[in-house]
Amino acid sequence: MIKTGQQRRQLTFALAAGLLSPWAVGAAAAAAAAPDWADQLRRDLDKMAAHLTQTLKPWKVPNRVFLPEDHGLTSGAAPAATTTAIQRAIESCATAGGGTVRLAKGDYISGTLVLRSGVMLEVAEGARLLASTDLHDFPEHVAQRPTVMDSNMGMNQSLIFAEGCERIGICGKGMIDGRGTKDNFPGEETAGSTPGRPFLIRVIDCRRVVVRGIHLKDSPCWMQNYLNCEDLIVDGIRVDNQANHNNDGLDIDSCRRVIVRNSFINAEDDAMCFKGAGQRLAEDILVENCEFYSTCNALKFGTDSQGDFRNVLVRNVTVGGPSDAMRAMNRRKADGGISWEIVDGGTLERVLVHDAHIVRAESPLFLRLGDRGRVRPEQQRPGPGVLRYIVYDRITGDNNGMRGSFFTGIPEKAIEHVLLRDVSLGMAAANAPAVDQAAVPEAHAEYPDPHMFSKVMPAYGLWARHIRQLRLQRVHFSVSGADARPEVLAGVDAEVLRQ
Predict the structure, then answer these.
(1) Which of 197, 231, 419, 449 could be a cystine partner for 220, CB 3.0 to 4.6 Å?
(2) Lowest-confidence range among 16-25, 234-243, 286-295, 345-354?
(3) What percent of the chain has pLDDT over 90?
């Protein structure tokens, strides 16, 4: 065990100079037990998950049904008329004290719908809510409380919008189709604003939100964004978002008391993504029994990471790139399987992923602590954030790419306290030379993604730099062919203990 500052500096020098392998360090610590913080974290998060499961239930929908056909909708109505009829049904439902607004008779072509408190929007089996392809049918709804989401993406349009509501939801065995192809909603791929390409769902500052059983397809941009919500349940949904650029599957931003379960997401961009652009605390989150597939990052925190984020349990999930049987705009592996990124001054801590299977990912695991410092224009730029107390437990996978997993902080701020336990991941052998670890830039402010440095990283399994107390217990990376790279490599300022 490396305990003193002098010992730590000696270890860092030896590893960086190639005088001591991480295996030698691990052998010296082989008798050490799992860190107390990791076992306590597992107990705490199991308790949190049990409490959420027992107490976070769907709100009881009043036994009242409102139909757009009873509010002026006629067969073959234009999108504007359909929008008006459905909105009248929503308003009547809310005025009556809540209930279900049901779409049950074929296709409904609509522009923006604004949900109200007490309203459950149901798209029944056999019915479809289709987004209008006329951008004029999506009036802007600017959030009352400014966030980094507004200043960065400038996105104020969506098919379904809710703000400041309590007890709202979307459900049904039907489909909501954004018809968001590039022909209908053209635009460039971007890390900033997305003009002309609405989201499918935007829910802001709401409580007791339920999204259940629905099939969501082809948004022009992100599929769904829940920002600063409390008591959010996403259960049994299917998302196919492979029609355009920036096609995220599910974005949960600065939310508290959240359950995501029993869901399938296939997305062109990030599939299941947590963010901190709302600049509020996000905590007490359970993700379980899901499949997340992406040609970007399958399971991610970031890139916006201005708020604090803690107490997250992910269990029993499969993540990675789309299989050949799934739709994909770009037929490729996922860029990252599980990617935790802090680059905007926030804190990400107390996160446990266990019983996860990672397939078809160029970098199955990715940790990045950087210093981009993106906030609202009127706010002072923050310094580097915090990334610590991260556990990966019982992680398996195969058919992954050749890049390799990597964890890297920056010289000014290291990642701290990370445990990999019972990990077995299969990787492809490199077909090109690896980047020399000394040549990997620090890139403090670069957009964080697993492809940010090289197609072939210094180790085929795991490369680590600027990290304190990284423990590997029963960790094995296999490679499909000859590969000159080491399985695990510790770079500068990396404290790696293998058991």
Answers:
(1) 197
(2) 16-25
(3) 91
Clarify whether residues 310 and 405 are in a common domain. yes
Q: Which two tokens stand for residue 384?
A: 């580097």
pTM of the complete model: 0.93
Residue 271 maps to a domain: no
Amino acid at 37: W
Interatomic CA distance for residues 450 and 297, integer angstroms: 9
Cα 376 from chain centroid?
Answer: 22
- Do residue 72 and residue 3 come from a single domain? no
Tell whether 284 and 240 lie within a shared domain.
no
Q: 136 and 87 in one domain?
A: yes
Claim to verify: residue 48 and residue 76 sit in the same structural domain: no
359/323 same-domain check? yes
Phi–psi pair at 62, nearest 5 degrees: -55, 145
Q: Among the three residues 201, 232, 247, which one is the final residue of a domain in this structure? A: 247
- The verdict on residue 93 lying in a domain is yes
Q: Are 272 and 260 in contact (CB under 8 A)?
A: yes
> What's the domain count of the chain?
2
Mean pLDDT of 175-200: 95
Domain closes at, from 195, 230, 247: 247
Is the same domain home to 50 and 134? no
What CATH number has the domain bearing residue 69? 2.160.20.10
Range of the domain at 319: 1-58+280-499
Lowest model confidence (mean pLDDT) among 27-31, 322-326, 347-351: 27-31
Confidence band, pLDDT 50/70/90 cuts, at residue 457? very high
How many other C-beta atoms are found inside a 10 Å radius of the C-beta of residue 189? Answer: 11
CA 303/CA 300 separation, integer angstroms: 8
Look-up of token digits 């949960």: 252
Q: Give me the residues paired with residue 216 across strands.
A: 176, 239
Residue 19: pLDDT band (50, 70, 90) is very low
Going by C-alpha positions, the residue among 390, 316, 397, 314 that lies closest to residue 355 is: 316
C-alpha 138 chain-centroid distance = 26
The verdict on 53 and 67 lying in the same domain is no
Report the alpha-carbon distance of residue 206 to residue 253 in Å, rounded.
Answer: 12
Q: Which residue bears the tokens 């040609």?
A: 295
